[in-house]
Write a structure and sequence with these properties.
This protein has ten helices and six strands, in the order βαβαββααααααβααβ. The protein is α/β, with parallel strands linked by helices. It is globular, with a radius of gyration of 18 Å. The two termini are 27 Å apart.
């Protein structure tokens, strides 16, 4: 059986889980970001990132690569449109979700996500800059959506990549109300069985992992990768990030790749 080195809350892992479920592929899920599973994760991905998919002798790292592998391995139902223009659109929105959306949401959620034990406050203007950029992306998505129910007409990887990020925006103080097409899309996504199953799994996992007041995950140190660092540097928060490095709260892994998967 396929093994997925997983995490209930990682948007990258959520994307892969929804694709596996849409394609009705059986898999074993391992919550690989739990501290107790760290060595097991490093054995399949030295960067200690999720998701990782192991299919027999084949190991695939990086959510976009996993999705491409699954599309080749289990072509029906397809999660890429047939038309080349729509395929390019789907891939483009997956890239925006995996890089820019992830970077902003990761950075400004440090003071609200239950795994982190921050006793400080976000630097002045940090969260506000993130909200402005998120609203800019929502405006782009609003303009990209046509009269269809989904980004490319039928459900595609664009929808499954975007949804885990966009579904978290309310917790960050970003409303979908000014974007009626995005709001409609969000509602349509929630009618899909795989999305309903994903939301239920996330909710159930949050209760199981955090209800007792403890956490199975690293709570003090935050792993920073290229897109996430790039966003905060571009907005002038270099001194804050340098202070995080000096304090030992920020960790930058060696050998950064061009696209990163990790916990939210």
């Amino acid at each position: 059986m396929i093994a997925l080195y997983d995490n209930p809350f990682s948007p990258f892992a959520r994307k892969v889980r929804m694709v596996l479920q849409l394609k009705e592929v059986a898999f074993q899920s391992i919550d690989a970001l739990a501290i107790a599973e760290h060595e097991r994760l490093v054995a399949v991905n030295p960067r200690a990132e999720v998701p990782v998919l192991v299919d027999g002798e084949v190991t695939v790292v990086n959510s976009a690569e996993i999705v491409a592998y699954l599309e080749d391995r289990f072509p029906s139902p397809a999660i890429l449109p047939v038309a080349p223009a729509l395929r390019a659109k789907a891939r483009s929105w997956q890239r925006i979700a995996d890089t820019l959306l992830d970077a902003i949401i990761h950075d400004i959620s440090l003071w609200s996500w239950p795994t982190h034990r921050r006793t400080d406050q976000a630097p002045i203007g940090f969260v506000e800059a993130g909200r402005r950029d998120l609203e800019s992306i929502l405006a782009q998505l609003e303009a990209s959506l046509d009269s269809g129910r989904f980004v490319c007409g039928e459900p595609s990887i664009a929808d499954f990549a975007l949804f885990p990020h966009i579904s978290s925006l309310k917790l960050l103080g970003v409303s979908l109300d000014p974007f009626p097409k995005v709001l409609r899309w969000n509602r349509e996504m929630r009618t899909l069985p795989v999305v309903r199953a994903d939301l239920e799994y996330v909710k159930r996992s949050a209760l199981e992992k955090f209800a007792a007041g403890s956490s199975p995950y690293e709570a003090e140190k935050v792993v920073w990768r290229g897109d996430r660092i790039e966003w905060l540097l571009a907005h002038g928060f270099r001194d804050w990030f340098q202070a995080e490095l000096v304090a030992g709260r920020a960790v930058v892994p060696a050998g950064c790749s061009t696209q990163r998967d990790e916990t939210p």
